[in-house]
Amino acid sequence: MVIFFILSVLALVFQTPFTIFLLIFGQIAIWVFNHYRNKDHIKSIKNTAKQETKVANVRADEAYDNLVKLINAIPSPLVYINQKGDFEVSNQYFNSLIKVDAESVYDIDIDTVIRQTLLDAFLNERQFVKQLNYRGIDFQVLSIPLMVEGNRYNGCMLIFQDITRVLEGEKMQKRFIADASHELRTPIASIKGMIEIMNRSNFNDEETRTEFNLQIEKEANRLEHMVEDLLLQSRLKSKQVYLEKTRFNLKQFFDSIVYEKRQALYHAKIETIINCPEDLVVYADQFRLTQVFTNLINNAINYAPDGTIEITAIDNKDRVIIEFKDNGMGIKEEMIPHIFERFYRGEGDRSREKGGSGLGLAISKSIIEAHGGSIRVESEYQKGSSFIIELKTDA
Ligand SMILES: Nc1ncnc2c1ncn2[C@@H]1O[C@H](COP(=O)(O)OP(=O)(O)OP(=O)(O)O)[C@@H](O)[C@H]1O
Ligand SMILES: [Mg+2]
């Protein structure tokens, strides 16, 4: 630039053909220089832009992959419906929910229940939460409309949450409250009735008074046991019971329980056989396990009199398998899935007659499960029942 300036000054001052030539030549040289410099510059800008686009594309691909991974990790059917009604993003659970290979809310191959919900969410552009039952599953559907700048509707997102178990739990809880209040109300009503009669001014029957007093004591004891049993079971279920585990000999344990119950067993004309290796040791809370086997013996006394109980224990590596078998009245097939439920009593009210409240097996199950073990039943109506318990032999 400086040279060009000097040349220009010289050309203007001297105005010779040589200086004028120099001036023209200099201008051409500068133009050529600038042209190539700009070309290189543009080229480098182009390259940089290309590289940046490439990086941006890679980033966009990564972000999309992450989004797909994320929505597939959500264990509920999820879909984003764009403003045209197309399923723009959806996870595998949504695809298996609608079953068909559909691409938009208008596809008539989608089952009416689901399609109606999708259309409702898409067309009404409003947020809602609703419940629906589809193929035996209870769903809670949440629809969220998506808005862009200017409050413009940009489609909606739907998530289908499986709430079958929650509803099941609610139903069970309601049933439990109904059963528990019924069971508690019965002895309370009978106590109140007897007290009312005894409080009448003209009541002077001493024999009935003695009888009523005994009956009231019996009902009060039943109530007390029931409340204790319920509390114990709920504490066991919420792991609030501390198990005092010790190592003890199983054969001696069975012998002592049968000895404790010898009178009741004798009256029920039940013979007991114990098949247990002499040296078999378990690690458990002996007091709680006594509750389990006392329940099983009480049941045998009530539902399998005039028969035989056979208790067999087998050492199976780190587990012990105990079979408690009777040859009594057995359990009807349709009753089997329910006998470990709270307050469930078999037909004929035989256990009610015996003062049972249907909590024995529910508590036994909770005790065994609190030990990390399992209990199940196999039974044939009119032939007998087998309760099979598995317990860990070690800690
Ligand atoms: N060994 C058995 N043989 C036949 N039926 C049985 C036997 N054990 C249990 N059942 C059936 O299962 C039901 C539930 O038993 P569970 O021990 O839980 O309650 P319960 O004996 O009726 O009352 P509770 O034990 O609270 O005094 C019983 O009412 C009975 O119908
Ligand atoms: Mg019982």
TrEMBL record:
PROSITE patterns: HIS_KIN (PS50109). Residues 179-395 form the Histidine kinase domain. InterPro entries: BphY/WalK/GraS-like (IPR050351), HATPase_C_sf (IPR036890), HATPase_dom (IPR003594), His_kinase_dom (IPR005467), HisK_dim/P_dom (IPR003661), HisK_dim/P_sf (IPR036097), Sig_transdc_His_kin-like_C (IPR004358). It is found in: Membrane. The keyword Chaperone does not apply. Coiled coil: none annotated. The keyword Phosphoprotein applies. Keywords: Kinase, Membrane, Phosphoprotein, Transferase, Transmembrane, Transmembrane helix, Two-component regulatory system. Its main location: membrane. Signal peptide: none annotated. This is histidine kinase. The lineage of its organism: Bacteria, Bacillati, Bacillota, Erysipelotrichia, Erysipelotrichales.
